[in-house]
Amino acid sequence: MDLDRNKWYVRWFFWSLGICDEFTGGCQGEYHNNGTNLCHFCRVIFLYAPAVLLLHITLIVFALAVLIPFPISYFGGSGYLRWLGVIVLMAFIIRALKIFLRWFSNLPSRPRKMRKPEKPVEYAGPSFLELVWEWLVAQKKKICPIIRFVDARTGEVKNA
Q1: Residue 97 phi/psi, 5° resolution?
Q2: Full DSSP string of 11-47
Q3: How confident is the model at residue 49 (pLDDT cuts 50, 70, 90)?
Q4: Which of 11, 52, 151, 158 is 20 to 30 Å from 34 by CA-CA measure?
């Protein structure tokens, strides 16, 4: 089965692999080149990524709970708000400098050439619901088909 690399669910898969690679040490390039099977593809999309996102949200909520109520109870509201204002102001200044430097470095020094219009994409690939249906059928048959990732513009499959 060939999947277009530009489909939202394939991008979600690679983004989810990036999240998982933060914990495991990384093998994302292997999947870009060699592909994977449908069961692993759906397991990453439906199980691993939501679990990791839920844990990240829990961590952020816990960190906010630690950073807001506890300092107020120890230092008082006025001292906490004063230091919070200083930190927010510094973050704003740093962000504004980064945006200005990025804008300043991207100023064109000469006129740019007009791009040629892209050819219409011929390859559509299966939709997300068709892919989920194939996964359900594969779970019933206990045989997971191999997935290759195709570049829709060129039609080439990157295999090692």
Answers
A1: -65, -40
A2: HHHHHHHHHHHHHH---HHHHHHH-EEHHHHHHIIII
A3: confident
A4: 52
If phi > 0 it is left, if psi is from -120 to 50 it is alpha, else beta; for residue 113 that is beta
Interatomic CA distance for residues 8 and 5, integer angstroms? 8
Predicted pLDDT of residue 159 = 46
3-state secondary structure 130-146: HHHHHHHHHHHHCCCCE
Euclidean distance between CA atoms 149 and 129, whole angstroms: 18
Distance CA 118, CA 151 (A): 14
| CB-CB contact of 37 with 68 (8 Å) | no
pTM metric for this prediction: 0.58
31: CB partners within 8 A, 6+ apart: 14, 17, 149
Tokens at 5, concatenated? 């690399």
Cα-to-chain-centroid distance, residue 98: 23
Other beta carbons within 10 angstroms of residue 159's beta carbon come to 9
